[in-house]
Amino acid sequence: MAAELTVHQLIAKHRPTLDQALEAIRTRAYWSPHPEHPKAYGEQGSLDMAAGKAAFDALLGTRLDLGQPGTDDFVGGEVSPYGIELGVEYPHADVDVLLPAMKAGQKAWRDAGAEIRAVVCLEILKRISDRTHEFAHAVMHTSGQAFMMAFQAGGPHAQDRGLEAVAYAYVEQVRTPDTAEWTKPQGKRDPLALTKQFTPVPRGIGLVIGCNTFPTWNGYPGLFASLATGNAVLVKPHPRAVLPLALTVRVARDVLSEAGFNPNLVALTAERPGEGIAKTLATRPEIRIIDYTGSTAFGDWLEANARQAQVYTEKAGVNSVLVESAGDYKGMLANLAFSLSLYSGQMCTTPQNLLIPRDGIRTDEGPKTFDEVVADLARSVDGLLGDDARANALLGAIVNPDVKARLEAAAGLGEVALASREIANPEFPGAVVRTPVLVKLDGAKPDDEAAYMSECFGPVSFAVAVDSASDAVELLRRTIREKGAMTVGAYTTDEEVEQAVQEVCLEEAAQLSLNLVGGVYVNQTAAFSDFHGSGGNPAANAALCDGAFVANRFRVVEVRREA
Q1: Which of 455, 453, 460, 425 is nearest to 345 (CA)?
Q2: What's the pLDDT tens digit per position in 84-122?
Q3: Other C-beta atoms lying within 10 Å of the C-beta of residue 307
Q4: How far apart are CA 522 and CA 532, in angstroms?
Q5: Where do the DSSP E strands lie in 425-551?
Q6: Percentage of the chain lying above the pLDDT 70 cut
Q7: Cα 419 vs. chain centroid, distance in angstroms?
Q8: Would you say 193 and 562 are in contact if contact means Cβ atoms under 8 Å apart?
Q9: Which residues contact 521 (CB under 8 A, 6 or more apart)?
Q10: What is the DSSP letter of 344?
Q11: What percent of the chain has a predicted confidence (pLDDT) above 90?
Q12: Using one digit for the tens of pLDDT, what is the confidence trace for 485-505?
């Protein structure tokens, strides 16, 4: 787009999309402006599959100089989970120089108003969308996601979450009018009259601390929520997943500059190996908002120590599926098998604990014992992943050695119902690909409890035998309350059990999926309709996305004048 990009052009181009997004979050109906199918790209300036792959290949071994002030070095070192070195170098920042430069752009950005900020954000998202194929390879080779998942989750689904955040930010900012005429009658005297002006003002600089597994999907909500509410945003990617967010920052800086704003409103800071700059940045007085996805330990540290900032965290949880009875036994098994296998279980929403009565369950195929249910689920996973090509397309690659170590250790925790096996990836021989392990545990044994009450991130699931459905419900409650849960699933044909599970999830603030047997899975959520997390249990202190996620990123300042 030409450098003389005007506000009027942006409003004409993007206001209809913004209005559709506002309607979508109001109705919660399905909607997305970002195509999920790879063949939808390649027209009107977007990159098709071949061009996207070529663009990604051209990045390898290069230096990504973003033209940021305070760049004192270039750092890199990413190695794809598929076994190739990316060789890309990124700017390392002297934050004493960079942060003041970022702050300098906020006045004009604040004064632009909510609508202009929103449409600038939508232009950034549109340009990212046009390069979805390129971004998909960047996500794939930093997260280990298989290509199609990297394309969809790292592309259109991430862009949807970013747009959703912009829509919520706009709603909250325009809730208060720009101006008001205030008149108070005084009886026989002249009325009191004031003109009041209300301005949303940013908190300061937002810090996005990126994650390894979903750099764009988890990064975009906070980035765009802060930017749309007037804040500058500093992006600190995970050291193993810099490229997708570095490309995002480059696009954002280009759009901001072309629209007449300071490009330093969005900046990147990469880190040297072992430098650990997140703690230093998080406690800087200039940082007033933090968005973080990752371990509970560091999330808790941020909440306790970054006292000057509004902190939004998505941490670890223990996700459970209660299996009491099934009206479609085969559908249940197929749905669960897919949920356990997708991206090798490396999702914060993947089920870990399957709570099953030890006396078995009722199904449309007759009664099934605990052992039969577990064996049948193991066979479903085996069937799903029996073909190596299909398995590679579902599993992706193990993202880091810690996940591999947890997977290997899990086999020693109990009776193995489904052993993990190694799968070769012919295209990427260096990829570490493993099928899920399923381990039987006893809910009544303290030693087993230590295993299933801890998050075991990766392709590890536990079939936990419980004494009854009511015991399963109480274990579910305790797990959510003590450990948190991003997702809860339940299978039951009993209305009382369904009500009991629903009541637990309402009381403990956990998102519930009931009796899923088709193409919707407990570990997937749709922007504009589903809430990701609730902010009401220990797994996360915020939800993607609701009004609470954006409203505290700005304050409204009032100026009163005599009329």
Answers
A1: 460
A2: 999 999 999 999 999 999 999 999 999 999 999 999 999
A3: 8
A4: 11
A5: 437-442, 460-466, 488-491, 512-514
A6: 99
A7: 30
A8: yes
A9: 335, 338, 339, 342
A10: G
A11: 98
A12: 999 999 999 999 999 999 999
The Cβ of residue 548 has, within 10 Å, a number of other Cβ atoms equal to 14
Contact (Cβ atoms closer than 8 angstroms) between residue 482 and residue 493: no
3-state secondary structure 321-336: EEECEECCHHHHHHHH
Distances in Å between the alpha carbon of 354 and those of 357, 374, 384, 463? 10, 9, 19, 5
User: Please, which residues bridge with residue 85 across strands?
Assistant: 79
Sequence-ordered list of residues with C-beta below 8 angstroms from that of 43, at least 6 positions apart, any chain: none
Longest dimension (CA), the chain: 89
**Hey, what are 206's tokens?**
């937002």
Write the single-letter amino acid at 362: R
Amino acid at 92: H
Mean pLDDT of 249-278: 96
As a whole number of angstroms, the distance between CA 299 and CA 305 comes to 10
In 307-371 the beta strands, taken as DSSP E runs, fall at 310-314, 320-323, 325-326, 353-357, 362-363
Residues in the chain, how many? Answer: 563
For the stretch 43-62, pLDDT in tens is 888 999 999 999 999 999 99
Place of tokens 């590890």: 460
Please answer whether residues 374 and 438 qualify as being in contact, where contact means their C-beta atoms are separated by less than 8 angstroms.
Answer: yes
Start-to-end Cα distance in the chain: 44
CA-based nearest residue to 251, from 112, 89, 134, 116? 134
Q: Distance between CA atoms of 238 and 268, rounded to whole angstroms? A: 11
| Mean pLDDT of all residues in 268-284 | 95
Exposed, middle or buried: residue 29 (CB in 10 Å: 0-12, 13-18, 19+)?
exposed
* CA dist., res. 172 & res. 467, Å (int): 48
CB 451 within 8 A of CB 342: no
- The answer for residues whose C-beta is within 8 angstroms of residue 12's C-beta and 6 or more apart is none
Classified as helix, coil or strand, 100 is helix
Compute the distance between CA of residue 177 and CA of residue 199 in angstroms, rounded to an integer. 9
Residues 6+ apart with CB under 8 A from 27: none
The token pair that represents 217 in the structure block: 């999907």
How far is Cα 153 from Cα 157, in angstroms, rounded to an integer?
A: 5
Q: How many alpha carbons fall within 13 Å on the CB side of residue 441?
A: 27
